[in-house]
Amino acid sequence: MKKIKLDISGMHCSSCAMNIDFDLEDLEGVKTSKTSYAKQVTEVEFDEAIIDEVKISEQVKKTGYSSKLASN
């Protein structure tokens, strides 16, 4: 399992954060997604043998938000 943090832009409320988590956790290979509206960050734990950062970022975009790998 691998963990990454994504900086998210475009969230307007805590429901936006929940939408991101629901959509990411529906992806095969994603174990958990925890999004903080206050911090504008998503932490994702996933099986890198099944899915990668690019596909996760693409799903965030499909949900209606922008993302990039967090610097820390």
Defining traits:
72 residues; alpha+beta; Alpha-Beta Plaits; 4-stranded antiparallel beta sheet; 2 helices; 4 strands; globular; metal-binding
Molecular structure report:
The protein is globular and about 35 Å long. The chain is built from 2 helices and 4 strands. The protein has helices at residues 14-25, 53-63; strands at 2-9, 30-36, 41-46, 66-69. Strand 2 (30-36) and strand 3 form a beta hairpin. With 72 residues, it is an alpha+beta fold. It has a 4-stranded antiparallel β-sheet with strand order 2-3-1-4. It has one domain: Alpha-Beta Plaits.
Short summary:
This protein is α+β, with helices and mostly antiparallel strands and 72 residues long. The chain has helices spanning 14-25, 53-63; strands spanning 2-9, 30-36, 41-46, 66-69.
Indicate the radius of gyration in whole angstroms: 11 Å
Number of helices in the DSSP assignment = 2
Any low-confidence stretches, pLDDT <50, length ≥5?
A: none
How confident is the prediction overall: mean pLDDT?
94
**H/E element order:** EHEEHE
What spatial order of strands do you see in the largest sheet? 2-3-1-4
* Category from helices, strands and their pairing: alpha+beta
Q: Determine the CATH topology.
A: Alpha-Beta Plaits
In terms of DSSP E residues, the strand content is 25-35%
CA distance, first residue to last residue: 18 Å
Report the major sheet.
Answer: 4 strands, antiparallel
Supply the CATH class: Alpha Beta
CATH architecture: 2-Layer Sandwich
Rough outline: globular
Number of strand elements: 4
Number of domains: 1
Approximately how much helix is present in the residues? 25-40%
